[in-house]
User: Fold this.
Amino acid sequence: MTLLISTTPALARDIDGKAISAQVLDEVREEVLNLARQHIYPALAVLLVGDDPASEVYVRNKLLRAKDVGIRSLEYRLAENASQHQVLELIAQLNADVTVNGILVQLPLPGRIDEAAVIHAIDPIKDVDGFHRENVGGLVQGMEVLTPCTPSGCMRLLQETCGDVSGLHAVVIGRSNIVGKPMATLLLQAHCSVSVVHSRSVDAPALCRLADIVVAAVGRPGLIDASWLKPGAVVIDVGINRITDESGSHLVGDVDYASARTVASAITPVPGGVGPMTIAYLLKNTLIASQMQHEAQVHEHTSASHLMVS
Ligand code: NAP
Assistant:
């Protein structure tokens, strides 16, 4: 008998963000129908200031996906030279509008506008990006709050790939407010041991080699290669970087995919990994926001009735 032994090392399997995000969108679509039976119609307001081409594409995709799942979307545009006062006024108007459940301000805003002031002007119960300090604090304390979309999407990819991640060691590379920090918090909540690596970390590759799960959110094309990974690690690449090489202009992640997949057991491709999950979780958050607002209204109504009786 001849025994055939392959000399090619097994390559990591792809974590299919397109397929998993389609499942999430199906769940959202079904829940939108359930809510419609109760005469609840979730609506998302998207505000774009200026005409940054990348932001235009992101906003268009968000609006299209919202329509796909039956969520009403409202697009608001302000000119590049709009004042901070105008932005805040519009947010106040949307906060007060009971038919609007989610408010998303497309970032980055033009440099003159104070991003933090705008984010914190959004009513936390409508903050579908989960960036308001009240939601950030609630997340850290393990409360049920609106949670940033990209880290939520990454957690779903991990659940679908690893099942229970309890007890695993996760290394998050990057500590931004929108990805790295909430990601580390969610992993901790899922009972991982978590390390956060950043630009000041001493020997980041050595720290990363200890990880069962690596989440890269750095913004440096191909920074993480096979030499950063423990054999069998699961790799989630959040990075979206546009590069131009001899084959033209294209998007790559923070992970050197070709190199990393020779060592990892599973990896998200870029594009087609984390990207589609972010929009899916934005729509899931819109749904959660409208349910939370409905419950708050019911509670208010019940409390008012009790007051009238007593
Ligand atoms: P960011 O705010 O620029 O943060 C980058 C982080 O990486 C910082 O914490 C920085 O450390 C750290 N860092 C930089 N160089 C490093 C190095 N050599 N070694 C270790 N850490 C290093 O970026 P972000 O907003 O989190 O975004 C990160 C990437 O994810 C970008 O490519 C972005 O486009 C992408 N992204 C994708 C999605 C999606 O939907 N897929 C969503 C959001 C962002 P310091 O804190 O020390 O400076």
Observations:
- The longest helix spans residues 275-309.
- The chain has a mean pLDDT of 95.
- The pocket of NAP is lined by residues 150, 173-176, 178-180, 197-201, 204, 217-220, 223, 238-241, 274-275, 278 (CB under 6 Å).
- Residues 149-275 form a domain with the Rossmann fold fold (CATH 3.40.50.720).
